[in-house]
Amino acid sequence: MDTAERQPRRQGWRFVLLALVLAVAISGLVRSLWIDVYFIPSESMEPLLETGDRILVSRTAFGSAPIRQGDVVVFDGRGSFAPLSSGKGPLVDAVDAAGQWFGLTGSDTTYVKRVIGLPGDHVQCCDASGRLTVNGQVLEEPYVYPGDEPSKQKFDVVVPEGRLWLMGDHRSRSADSRGLLGAPGGGMVPLDRVIGRPVQIIWPLDRFAEMPRSEQADPSKNGQ
Question: Half-sphere exposure (CA, 13 Å, Cβ side) for 86?
Answer without folding.
Answer: 15
